[in-house]
Amino acid sequence: MKAKPVALVTGANQGIGLQIAKELAAHGFTVLVGSRTFEKGQAAAASLGQDAHAVQLDVTDQASITAAAERVRSEFGRLDVLVNNAGISQTGRQPGMRVEEYAQSTLASNVSLDEVRAVFETNVFGVLAVYQGMLPLLREAPAARIVNVSSGAGSLTMNSNPDFPYRSGFRPLYHASKTALNAMTLAMAIELEATGIKVNAASPGPTKTSLNNYEGTETVEEGAREVVRLALLGPDGPTGTFSHATLGQLPW
Ligand code: NAP
Fold it and tell me: Is 40 a catalytic residue?
């Protein structure tokens, strides 16, 4: 086993994922930049320096996940941190469609089931599939950490509060996918409770990235902060939590 710990970040070719990869490299990790398009991952890895390497990884493609796990084992020999960051917000907003118009077309009563399936495929089933693919390697590491990049938008507790200002935006698409991701996080944490592996969910907050047409208010540095903190937790750190950098623990 190589001395340097290894971290894999999915969807790390841009946005919050790229920032997470950059910070983990600065903390001494060999960073594997997961990217569904290998060339984009290569360009991102090159921007991070010699301790970053591109790994082709489409979280919706089982063959890609299996090949990535085999490559991590054969080339790097260990995996200490897995950050499930890859995510999409929608697949159905047509170019030029106003936000309000799109919001009206994604209510529970009229949302496209194909679009719900596509978003869940990446944000929920993709995370579970990558977890299953990488867990054998993580179990061999001395103190592995898994961080799932969720969103406060998925909090059932916050969205069921009539005073919560954003609750009218709660939809069966992105929001519900993050609720389901929180459930997966808890299931993983409970499964691994007796091991030293900690599994937590982080909410980046509204961050300026392509996911929201750069309409977020936070920088990628702010968005990555809680994810990186959870990836670096020591032995006394928690497992099975959901948190934000400045708001602290979030209700599920
Ligand atoms: P982003 O810039 O759009 O990045 C998303 C990344 O996920 C991209 O690298 C994208 O790859 C990748 N991806 C999408 N589908 C994939 C797949 N099937 N396999 C592998 N990679 C895939 O958006 P971001 O804001 O940084 O999003 C990162 C995470 O933060 C997401 O989970 C998102 O839900 C979460 N989040 C974001 C915000 C926010 O305000 N931005 C708030 C809360 C949570 P391509 O470049 O190939 O598309």
Answer: no
Q: What length is written for the chain?
A: 252
**Cα separations (Å) of 101 from 92, 189, 220?**
12, 39, 28
> Is the C-beta atom of 149 inside 6 A of ligand 1?
yes
pLDDT averaged per 10 residues, the chain (length 252): 89 98 98 98 98 98 98 98 98 90 95 98 98 98 98 98 95 98 98 97 97 93 98 98 98 98
Determine phi and psi for 51, rounding to 5 degrees.
Answer: -90, 10
User: Which ligand 1 atom is the nearest neighbour of the CA of 57?
Assistant: 20
Question: Could you tell me the residue ranges of all domains in the chain?
Answer: 6-249
CATH of domain 6-249: 3.40.50.720
**In the numeric block, which tokens belong to residue 9?**
């970040």
Please give the single-letter amino acid code of residue 102: Y
> For residue 130, what is the enclosing H or E element?
helix 126-140
